[in-house]
Amino acid sequence: MNFYPLAIPRSSYYLNLPRILVFTLGLFLVVFGTQNLNAQGTTCPTAEILCTPNAAFPASTSGSNLGAVPTCSGNQVVNKCSSCTVNSTPRSAFYTLTVVEPGDLFLTLSNSALVDVDFAIWGPFTSPDAVDNCNGGNFPPGNPFDCSYDPGPTEQIDIPNVKRGESYILLIANYSGISTNITLVPNNAGSGVNTAGLGGPLAFSDTQTQQFALNSPPSNLQTNPAIGDPNLSNVNFSGSGITNAANGTFDPAIAGLGTHTVTVTGDSWGCPVTTTLDVVVELDTDGDGTPDSTDTDDDNDGVLDGSDTDPIDPSVCQDLDGDGCDDCSETSNTDFSVGNNFDTDNDGLDSDGDGICNDGDPDDDNDGTPDGSDPNPLTPTAVDDFATMIQGVLGNINIVSNDDFSPGLNTTITRIGGDASGIVALDNITGELAYTATAGEVGTTVTILYRICNTAVSPNVCADATVNITIDTDTDGDGTPNSTDTDDDNDGVLDGDDTDPLDPSVCQDLDSDGCDDCSATSNADFSVGNNFDPANDGLDTDGDGICDASDTDDDNDGVLDGSDTDPLDPSVCQDLDGDGCDDCSAASSTDFSVGNNFDTDNDGLDTDGDGICDDGDPDNDNDGVADGDDTDPLDPSVCQDLDGDGCDDCS
User: Fold this and answer.
1) Which tens digit of pLDDT belongs to each residue from 252-276?
2) Distance between CA 174 and CA 117 in Å, rounded?
């Protein structure tokens, strides 16, 4: 049988990117002298793991008798058992064996006192976990693969074709009870040569794939099972380039070029494990497997290092055609693929396709504007414009000032569309667009699509853009469109406070007298100034501070205008008593003082005192002669001479 002690042959691994590092972590153990098992597995679930099964270990002298073991006769063809049922198991002890090398497991079980010991072995199991493998019973479930109840001092274990990583549970019963040391010896007389190997539980996988170069980023050495597995503990990586001992992080940049030794230690299922390896780090810029030290073209750009201006950058090599652009500039600085990466005809970006790479071209997009003053040096660009113009008034906007192009003789500006219906004029020398809007466009935004071209190059370089013009009115004609004018009618009252912001004769009633403060202004007077005047905002006949428009008695005669026959004359109002005399006739036509000027009892002269004023009395002096026939209608003693006797008839 092959056994694997603590000392592992050192191996060297060369890590020339992109070569794969494959190494074996055979972390197997040795116990120096006789293995001391003070805590033997006296029950199946507590089976002792044999870290070094080649070392002698004591048989139990005090374990329980667990009774008979199921027969192993089912495998008699291969295990060659003769006493195939262990009928009694006094002083039992359980152990776990792990296969570290595949092959035929043919062992001789012997003991130092040459007394009677018996055995049974179960498996294979996928892990050395005895609790899982025993499933809570005195023995593992099912029949043992091999067993022997022979009374002799030696037994034969035969398990052909074992696999690496398999575990087996071994029961040894010390039938005699005498103190003795057990040994497992490779080969036996019955089956022949042992080709399998036993060792401690496998801590790490056979191989590990890892890739390093001097300029590679730090990475962790991988283990299987992974770091953190509950059955793998106390793992420690040490050596040059290790930056994290617990995770095994290796940094080639810290280690540097050369050979570096890494030591890995830990515990697997309680068994100490260790290994060492040598790692050789070399610089291989292009990852072609040939170190830079012997590579004639380190960056694989097709230019030999001696002629290469930067031999480790595939995007930099030479300027063979002298156009100011590196012949490898079209290659990524991380593209180390094999090939001729340099190309004098394609050695840099040529945005305008004029055969001159951008690095040597003063106008990369051929729009006529040098790159230094071009806001978009790689793309000929025309930018949309926005303006507000007044209907009926010629408006202008420079549409080239925000474009990449420059106005001049080599520039053309052409209308190519849009819905504007007014008169459009485009000037390639000044870069201006002039427009006169129609009446039907007021309140809308019209568009003019144009194309601007640099005709100094062939083919011409052009770009398109749209001019968006909002058509507005200018009510007061001050040159500011209503949309931006804070006083559209120039009446001195801001639009937000103006009850009619487009009529200069209407604005507000600041003094709340019922008359608009701008009423003294014509509705066609848009001259600049403060047109509103609360003190002169309408006719006030009676001067009472309330303009006639809101005054219910304009002449202050005490009769409301609606009943007043002359609402503006305080001496004329009504004839309420129907006596033919105006009730206000006693007042002066210029007397606007506040009061009741009308008086039905004093509404005119009543010469004869008959209650009818003279104006409505047909005989003012009551002399019996109608006023029209009375020679003196106000003197009752004078009236007429009807009989012609020369004497007045009223004398």
Assistant:
1) 889 988 888 888 888 887 788 777 7
2) 5
Our CA dihedral for 254, 256, 259, 264, rounded to 10 degrees, sits at: 10
Q: Are 55 and 37 in contact (CB under 8 A)?
A: no
510, 525 contact by CB (below 8 A): no
Task: Identify the three-state secondary structure at position 93.
Answer: strand
Contact yes or no for 182/174 (Cβ under 8 A): no
Length of the chain counted residue by residue: 651
Do 564 and 545 touch, CB atoms closer than 8 A? no
Contact 637, 648 (CB under 8 A): yes
How far is it, in rounded angstroms, from Cα 446 to Cα 575?
Answer: 68
Burial environment of residue 326 by CB neighbours within 10 A (0 to 12, 13 to 18, 19 or more): buried
Residue 650's identity, in one-letter code, is C
Q: Residue 587: which residues within 8 A CB-CB, separation 6 or more?
A: 557, 570, 571, 597, 598
Instruction: Say yes or no to pLDDT of 189 above 80.
Output: no
Closest by CA position to 67, among listed 163, 161, 171:
171
CB atoms within 10 A of CB 294: 7
Whole-number Å distance between alpha carbons of 48 and 93: 8
Output 121 or 558, whichever has higher pLDDT. Answer: 121
**CB atoms < 10 A from the CB of 237, how many?**
23
| CB contact at 8 A, 11 and 21 | no
Collapsed DSSP state (helix, strand, coil) of residue 396 = strand
**What is the chain's alpha carbon radius of gyration, rounded to the nearest angstrom?**
62
Q: What is the pLDDT of residue 339?
A: 67
The one-letter amino acid code at 478 reads: D
Report residue 49 as tokens: 């793991």
Of 428, 429, 411, 414, the closest CA to residue 467 belongs to: 414
**pLDDT tens digit string along 298-346?**
888 889 999 989 998 988 988 887 777 888 887 888 888 876 677 777 7
Please answer whether residues 474 and 393 qualify as being in contact, where contact means their C-beta atoms are separated by less than 8 angstroms: yes
Q: Which residue has the tokens 């509404």?
A: 603
Q: Rounded distance, CA 245 to CA 411, Å?
A: 71
Provide the pLDDT for residue 144: 96
Signed CA dihedral, 221, 225, 227, 233: sign only:
negative
